[in-house]
């Protein structure tokens, strides 16, 4: 497995990471045994980066990973955890909390659920509008000194916030959506990360399955986030599936699957970028791992760009109410 460095100060991780969110109901029901088998297979095949959030399934995802970690080589793995999102008993969202006291509380629970004495990369899930980022990162820097966390990351924040955070303590990486359908980071956020030596862990590389080659127009199941995602609605869905079909034609000419080509494109954007794949099953993981063997020449890249040009996606990547709380989407 190829290794990539997460920024100038971050850890060496596998060139592909496993995003575990979908194993805890965010995309509808998941099979526990298959989830555990998928994590085990990922580690066996050389994946070292496992990504989660303490609010995925209200702690379910961390407990699942904690169970999977038993018997796995913890010293060779990097666990990335997002914190701060507030939930309620109806599975709703109640905002974000990045106060120092709250962070210590979140961390204590995460360490217990994961069954580990440290978290390799710890990051606020979103910017808390009521807490200066300097205060949040300052509290996390103290946790680094205590050995509870190894590296500080960020998630879905803009260039100005990245600079302010990095001035307090070195930031290892920024986790943010990046795919053929979501290229907004290319204008300002990605150049800022590269200037400061901050890596990128890219989630949503298949646009939540939309450009995987496996999605069709069937209705989503209860609890599936895609049921409220603008890109999966009506004419937007028709347009976006047309883009996926065009990408599939390029993939067929190259002898790979649509999903593999979409993942390979993200991986090709720079050695400072690590794609996260949200495989919930071993067959999907096997397919994703095949993307690491693809080398894209200029002709292939041109074909991909022709199939899905920048800005071609129909619909926003999140509902408007969620976009309003995302610092990465703020227009200053």
Automatic annotation (TrEMBL):
Residues 16-307 form the NADP-dependent oxidoreductase domain. It comes from the Bacteria. One of its GO terms (molecular function) is oxidoreductase activity. It holds the Pfam family Aldo_ket_red. GO terms for cellular component: cytoplasm. InterPro entries: Aldo-Keto_reductase, NAD(P)_OxRdtase_dom_sf, NADP_OxRdtase_dom. Keywords: Oxidoreductase. SUPFAM superfamilies: NAD(P)-linked oxidoreductase. This is Aryl-alcohol dehydrogenase-like predicted oxidoreductase. It comes from Muricoccus pecuniae.
């Amino acid at each position: 497995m190829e290794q990539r460095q997460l920024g100038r100060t971050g850890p060496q991780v596998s060139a592909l990471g496993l995003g575990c969110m979908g194993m805890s109901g965010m995309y509808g029901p998941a099979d526990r045994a298959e989830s555990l088998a998928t994590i085990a297979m990922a580690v066996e095949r050389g994946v070292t980066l496992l990504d989660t959030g303490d609010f995925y399934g209200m702690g379910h995802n961390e407990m699942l990973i904690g169970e999977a970690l038993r018997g796995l080589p913890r010293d060779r793995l990097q666990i990335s955890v997002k914190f701060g999102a507030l939930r309620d008993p109806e599975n709703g969202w109640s905002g974000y909390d990045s106060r120092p006291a709250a962070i210590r509380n979140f961390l204590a629970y995460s360490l217990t659920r994961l069954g580990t004495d440290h978290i390799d990369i710890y990051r606020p899930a979103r910017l808390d509008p009521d807490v200066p980022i300097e205060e949040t990162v300052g509290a996390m820097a103290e946790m680094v000194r205590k050995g509870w966390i190894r590296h500080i990351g960020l998630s879905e924040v803009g260039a100005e916030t990245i600079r302010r955070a990095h001035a307090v303590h070195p930031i290892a990486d920024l986790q943010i959506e990046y795919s053929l359908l979501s290229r907004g980071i290319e204008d300002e956020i990605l150049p800022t990360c590269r200037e400061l030596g901050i890596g990128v862990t890219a989630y949503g590389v298949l646009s939540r399955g939309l450009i995987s080659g496996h999605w069709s127009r069937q209705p989503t199941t209860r609890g599936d986030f895609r049921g409220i995602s603008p890109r999966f609605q009506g004419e937007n869905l028709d347009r976006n599936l047309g883009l996926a079909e065009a990408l599939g034609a390029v993939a067929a000419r190259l002898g790979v699957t649509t999903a593999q080509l979409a993942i390979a494109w993200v991986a090709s954007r720079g050695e400072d970028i690590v794609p996260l794949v949200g495989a919930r099953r071993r067959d999907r993981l096997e397919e994703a791992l095949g993307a690491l063997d693809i080398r894209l020449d200029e002709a292939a890249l041109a074909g991909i760009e022709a199939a899905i040009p920048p800005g071609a996606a129909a619909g926003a990547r999140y509902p408007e109410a969620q976009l309003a709380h995302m610092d990465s989407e703020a227009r200053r």
